[in-house]
Structure formats: C-alpha cells, structure tokens
Amino acid sequence: MPRTLGGLCSLTDLRLNSNNFNGELADVVDGLSRCTGGAALSYLRIEGNKFNGIIPYNLGQFSGMYRLDLSSNSLEGDITEAHFSQLLQLGNFGHIFKLASPF
User: Fold this and answer.
1) I need a surface site. Which of 9, 23, 38, 80 has the fewest CB within 10 A?
2) Measured on CA atoms in the order 76, 78, 84, 90, is the torsion positive or negative?
C-alpha cells in the first residue's frame, strides 16, 4: 500500500476490504498521518486482506473515525487505550472494532 495516500488529506472513506492487499498497516496509516491539521478519515475498512505488523498508535489521531474494521488480517501486538483514546466517534467499541486474531 503506497505511502502516497498522504496526499489525500480530504479523504473521508477508505474501503479496501477483501482485496488481498498485503504489507504493513503502518504504511497506510503513516501516509495519512502526514496531513497538516490531520486527515479527515472517518471510515476505514481493510478487513479481509493480508496486512501484517502491529496496529500503529497514530491510528488514534483520526478523531472523526466512526467506523473501523481491521478484522481478517495478520495483525499482531497489544492493543492499548493509547491506540484509540482520541477516537471519540467510534460509539460502541465492541461492535465496531473487530479483530480476527487473538491478542
């Protein structure tokens, strides 16, 4: 996944689900985290791919995020409050955020 996503600062909805994309999830998030004033991303679906690595802490910078699905990937590591403390729009965390891998 190219880091050139960083040029898409007005992007609000990114649905890459079920495409067999691979690579580090950090590559997707890092590109968007370079936006001055933060990215507008509010909807992120990347389930059903082959993303690997840890869930990056800067995922939490998308304060307008209301839908997040990272399930059915090969993500690893611990999930802490620091990952999601700024994601105040997620609503019911248990139903919106789904992980297929045990942590």
Assistant:
1) 80
2) positive
